[in-house]
Amino acid sequence: MIAPYIRPLALVAMLAAAPVAAQDTATDDSAAADALPVGEEVGGPGSTYVAETHGDWEIQCERTEDGSDPCVMNQLMKNAEGGSMAEINLFALPEAAGDAIAGATIITPLETLLTKNITLQVGSRQPKRYQFTFCTQIGCVARVGFTAEDIDAFRKGAEATVTVFAIAAPNQPFNAIMSLSGFTAAYDALQAMNN
């Protein structure tokens, strides 16, 4: 069975319930023994932020020195049990790359059986199969292109199904649901940001 996909930053949430060490109160008796540091704002070049949210899609951007922050549409996809299973980062292409007018990276867990590839189906449309490109410590990545017809199907659909197989269960498909709620508004906003 494929283990749930966990974003690296999600590990921080696991530490939330851990006991907090008492601070040294020798220098400030008014400090609470269990106070947490509030941190400092960083937000410099290379940091990311959510610029907008449309339905189930976030527009995530990366800060740059010159303010021309590149952005992508992002969604963490869930399996039937509601667990996080895959992530998609969709981006508009400034110029069509062959038949593709948009691209995406889809990230799945490391236990994914790469030879079975990844399948994406919108509603009852014919599914499309894509090859994986590489794996990193956070998961396996498929770099895909979407045609104008694909984008139109996303605009009209309610959800898409992303199917992968696990190494431990090569004949049992695992599905992640890509919600298309808010897709049109997010895609239009992304195009406006990148023009």
Description:
- By secondary structure, this protein is mainly β.
- It starts with 9 loop residues before the first helix and ends with a helix.
- The chain contains three helices and eleven strands.
- 13% of the residues lie in helices and 42% in strands.
- The strands form two sheets. Strands 1-2-3-4-5-9-8 form a seven-stranded antiparallel beta sheet.
- It has one domain (47-193): Invasion associated locus B (IalB) protein (Immunoglobulin-like, Sandwich).
- Residues 6-26 have low confidence and may be disordered.
- A hairpin with a 2-residue loop joins strand 4 (84-97) and strand 5.
Structural descriptors:
mainly beta; seven-stranded antiparallel sheet; four-stranded antiparallel sheet; 195 residues; 3 helices; Immunoglobulin-like
Overall CATH class: Mainly Beta
Order of helices and strands: HEEEEEEEEEHEEH
- Overall shape: it is globular
How many angstroms does the end-to-end distance come to? 42 Å
Give the class from helix and strand content and strand pairing: mainly beta
CATH architecture: Sandwich
Spans of at least 5 consecutive residues whose pLDDT stays below 50 are 6-26
Number of strands: 11
Task: Provide the number of structural domains.
Answer: 1
Give the biggest sheet. Answer: 7 strands, antiparallel
Please give the radius of gyration in angstroms: 20 Å
CATH-defined fold name: Immunoglobulin-like
**CATH homology-level superfamily:** Invasion associated locus B (IalB) protein
| Strand order, largest beta sheet | 1-2-3-4-5-9-8
Q: Give the % helix.
A: 10-25%
Question: What is the typical, i.e. mean, pLDDT?
Answer: 83
Number of helical segments with 4 or more residues: 3
Hey, roughly how much beta strand do the residues contain? Answer: 35-45%
